[in-house]
Specification:
Strand order of the largest sheet: 5-4-1-13-14-15
Bound molecules: SN-glycerol-3-phosphate, magnesium ion
Radius of gyration: 22 Å
Organism: Pluteus cervinus
Strand content: 15-25%
Helix content: 25-40%
Protein name: HAD-superfamily hydrolase
Keywords: Hydrolase
Order of helices and strands: EEEHEHEHEHEHHEHEEEHEHEHEEH
Oligomer: single chain
Amino acid sequence: YGTPRRSSAAVPRKLPLAFALDIDGVLLRGPDVLPSAMSAIRILEGNNPYKTKIPYILLTNGGGMSEEARVEKLSKQLGCNLDISQYIQAHTVMKQFVCKYKNKHVLVLGGKRDVLRHLAEDYGFRYVHTTLDVLAWNPAVWPFHQLTEPENATTRRTEFSRTPIAAIFVFHDPRNWALDVQVLCDVIQSGGIIGGPYINLKDHKPVDLIFCNPDLLWRSDFPNSRLGQGAFKEAFQGVFKALTGNEYPYVQLGKPTKVTYDYAKAVLEQLGGGAKKTNSIDKPPRMYMIGDNPESDIAGANAAGWNSILVKTGVWDPERGPPTHPPTHIADDVKAAVLWAIENVQ
Ligand code: G3P
Ligand code: MG
């Protein structure tokens, strides 16, 4: 680990450090756990020269299942006992919209079949529809996809000609971009009533559109990065602009947005990390974001005034030039990143 810079007498009661760890490209690559991930977690859990637990959260633009389910899966993969309070995924912050839309019809995109419908209902949304429901209502909406039996079994019968959609939430990566782009264009151009007459969008945009992950690319277990939810957004906006002459206004959440980093800071402060002083003796902890994507992890951390450590195990490829957003430090992997921060704690 390297020799701690202080004599044992000066070891602080608490290391003034707190971490937000990205997942894809830092801890995991698709289903595979990266080699240094488990030891990095063990170091944060107390296996370090200071013998002290260091507050950390997992902050991902991923998602697609409930926080409970993902925390259980990650704990098994990483060999630790994560608490749900340590986990923030892309759509966690969508909860803030429940009070505004809970009694309105909303369309939730992404994820497997209707997993995210149930999650949106668990969040508190009451009238949640999917694009598979739309196709089950009228197969002519998109004649190039026939619902499979398993898909059909998850649909809910809805008369969309009398169901005004107030908002569209893209919770996770859509599985059928063609169907979802078609339905997005239908809902928005018809002011919420699919199949209804197109409205004049110049002065009236009744349907709200919210994305929670701007990643154009992300690192899975393929040798090159994969298209993310940000790429779906570009595909939709490209089609919509070709149809109407303009892109459609939307709300963007997820890293690198301020909303997501503010939320992460508040969560870390609850866990005893973050910038808030936890007591009169310890210095306020320094926040570190460890990520693989300069456009999301590093850009967001830099804008939030955190320290940022870029690792070489994900989206950013050192062979292709310097990162678009300069980190505080560049490390080979997540373990090297954690050790560097500990060895450089002031
Ligand atoms: O869909 C997940 C991907 O966009 C990136 O996830 O963990 O690298 O923020 P993560
Ligand atoms: Mg990542």
